[in-house]
Amino acid sequence: MRAPKRVLAASTLCFEAFAVFFGGLVAKDLSSLSHGQALLLFSWVAILCLVASGLLRNPWGYGVGSVLQVVVIGTGYWVHMMYFVGGLFALIWVAALVIGNRLEREVAEIDARLAAERDEA
């Protein structure tokens, strides 16, 4: 079974990559950035989100994902709606980590209880 925390966090980062990329499409028309600059900047942030989802197999990958939440919120400088979108994804990120930790703890408790029952039998 895959770790629930990793699955939730990776899913959040993958969906966030789509949101950031589409934010770049908006930025090319509504921001002070040129078309190329907007697409390059937002595409890189989206790619970093996808790379970070792969880095979650390492404990420090969650730190990278957390830093990316700040970066995504920072893209609101060019597209003001990204403040809201980035903030929303940051809340989802925190929820994914908290709920994932709780699920992993509960699964470990159930496994320990089942192992103790097997030992008694």
Automatic annotation (TrEMBL):
Membrane in keyword set: yes
Segments crossing the lipid bilayer: 6-26, 38-57, 77-99
Keyword Transmembrane helix carried by entry: yes
Record keywords: Membrane, Transmembrane, Transmembrane helix
Tree of life domain: Bacteria
Name of the protein this chain belongs to: DUF4233 domain-containing protein
Organism expressing this protein natively: Spongisporangium articulatum
